[in-house]
Amino acid sequence: MSPRGGYAVTHEEMERDVRLIKEYGFNAARTCHYPNDSYWYRLCDKYGLLLVCEANVECHGSGQGNARRSLACRKEWRGSFVERGVNMVKTYRHHPSIYFWSLGNECWEGENLQAEYDAIKSIDESRPVQYSTDRPVPYSDILAPMYWPAARCEGYVTNAPPKPLVQCEYLHAMGNAGGSQESHWELVARNRHYQGGFIWDFADQALLGADGNLKYGGDFGDSPNDGGFCCNGIFDAFRRPHGSALEARALNLGACSLSLPNAPGATLRQSASLRARTRDRQIGDIVFKPNFYRAPTDNDRGWKMPSVCRIWKNATETGKVPDGCTSDIATQELPDGSLKVEWLFVAAEGLPDMPRAGLTFRVCGGTNTLVRWRGRGPWENYCDRRAATNVGEWQMSVAELNPNNYVIPGEQGYRTETTRLEIGTLVVEAADGSSFGFNVWPWTQQDLEHTRHVEELPEPDGTLTVNIDAAQMGVGGDDSWSAHARALPQFRVHSGRKYRLSLILHEEEP
């Protein structure tokens, strides 16, 4: 898919994509849900990219999940199943890059698939054949399910599996996602029966509009539409990597060696203005406010985070914590003029998980303001997606800090395990051996939540939003439409716990 040509992809664009796939450590691609252009196969032969070639057999809208209505069970469709599978094999079988045939996609189960499998085997016994089901079937030589979490995969491969496991789709890479990759590849590394899987998918399928901006479902007056649901690539439409692509590269190449508590419901006292001086220079008025929410990602919308976590959004916007919770901030001016800030939040039992637990404030600055930090970098990273990063000392502008290439804006530009942060001349350090996560945005959290296209984000107004977190949940992404879209339990911010920040702020000479 090309942002300029749609399905009319040039040979140059095809070659760029094959090279990019190889550069990021991948060794295989699946031509879902139909065979591809013949030039693509020649490129895969040339560059050594293994292919699953999939037949043009797709019945998702015609009985998927309904054995009585499924086309795979209806005799009058058997000839079409067989014909399409056989034609695929006869057309492409001389390409050495093809190591698997696929009977098609999301046709449920039925005898027509067995007939297609038998017909393919009769003309090519040299290659395995796959079909996606949640159980071993005679017409698939492997088990090729979709979107099984790592825990379910482990349950299968550790119990004498009759067939190897290769997920035909896993890790729905929609927007700021890719948080479950490491759990899968850790299992692949230690169990030979789990032999990998195919990420859905390669690049955002967005199109350039006449105004020069990327468009998605509904932007062309089309109805019905799937909104931004076709924008689920590890790369954006222009082939710039998302965090999920950087994570995948790291994992692929590694695998190849290659004050007093407030009364319940009371307005939080810590929203008062804080003033401090250092070296006889005023830091300025900084208003610290607790922050328990985040601008939803695509995955967050998938598991209905804005509804599930509404109590935490309300607490952030109103300054009132839920009943049973306590939030306390204390400040102390130190002898050297720096300001020590201590925040303790106790989340009551039985409340929903929090998107984050931290403080937010605004400072002067713009997109060119230099940000330096000691922590994980250089790339955007989250507690469940950081294999592509290392702890070190990094610097970049605010504009560079935020990828801003997710088709629908949301939470972005995070860095974890930080012990020192410099934003222009302002310095924030973790005290007492602790660390924190941070964002620095030229927008507000509300801007990121309510804007549907990148170009609609407001122009920077000379101030920056700074979030300093004791914790933020991971981005998740086993899928983008169910409970599996949320981060794994170990990467959530649970209620019934204490969260603490201990910070020292001062200003350095410019």
Describe the secondary-structure layout:
Layout lengths: L10 H13 L4 E3 L7 H10 L2 E5 L23 H15 L5 E5 L8 H13 L5 E2 L19 H8 L7 E8 L8 H10 L3 E7 L6 E2 L5 E2 L27 H13 L17 E2 L2 E2 L2 E2 L3 E2 L1 E3 L6 H5 L2 H4 L1 H9 L7 E8 L5 E8 L9 E9 L5 E8 L12 E8 H4 L13 E4 L1 E4 L2 E5 L5 E6 L3 H6 L12 E10 L25 E10 L3
Parallel strand pairs: 1-2, 2-3, 3-4, 5-6
Antiparallel strand pairs: 7-8, 9-12, 10-11, 13-16, 14-15, 15-24, 16-23, 17-18, 17-20, 19-22, 20-21, 21-24, 22-23
Helix pairs in contact: 1-2, 3-4, 6-7
Short description:
The chain has 510 residues and is α+β, with helices and mostly antiparallel strands.
What does it look like?
The protein has 510 residues and is α+β, with helices and mostly antiparallel strands. It folds into two domains: 1-134, TIM Barrel, CATH 3.20.20; 269-507, Beta-galactosidase, Chain A, domain 5 (Distorted Sandwich), CATH 2.70.98. The protein has twelve helices and 24 strands. It has helices at 11-23, 38-47, 78-92, 111-123, 150-157, 181-190, 243-255, 298-302, 305-308, 310-318, 398-401, 445-450, and strands spanning 28-30, 50-54, 98-102, 129-130, 165-172, 194-200, 207-208, 214-215, 273-274, 277-278, 281-282, 286-287, 289-291, 326-333, 339-346, 356-364, 370-377, 390-397, 415-418, 420-423, 426-430, 436-441, 463-472, 498-507. α1 packs parallel to α2 and α3 runs parallel beside α4. Mean pLDDT is 91; it is low at 255-282.
Q: Structural class per helix/strand content? A: alpha+beta
Low-confidence stretches: 255-282
* Range of helix content: 10-25%
- Give the helix tally: 12
Tell me the strand percentage band.
15-25%
The neighbouring-strand order within the major sheet is 14-15-24-21-20-17-18
Q: Per CATH, what is the topology of the largest domain? A: Beta-galactosidase, Chain A, domain 5
Provide the CATH architecture of the largest domain.
Answer: Distorted Sandwich
Radius of gyration, in angstroms, nearest whole number: 26 Å
* CATH uppermost class of the largest domain: Mainly Beta
Terminal CA distance: 48 Å
Q: Let me know the largest β-sheet.
A: 7 strands, antiparallel
Mean pLDDT: 91
The tally of domains stands at 2
Task: Give the overall form.
Answer: elongated
**Count of extended strands:** 24
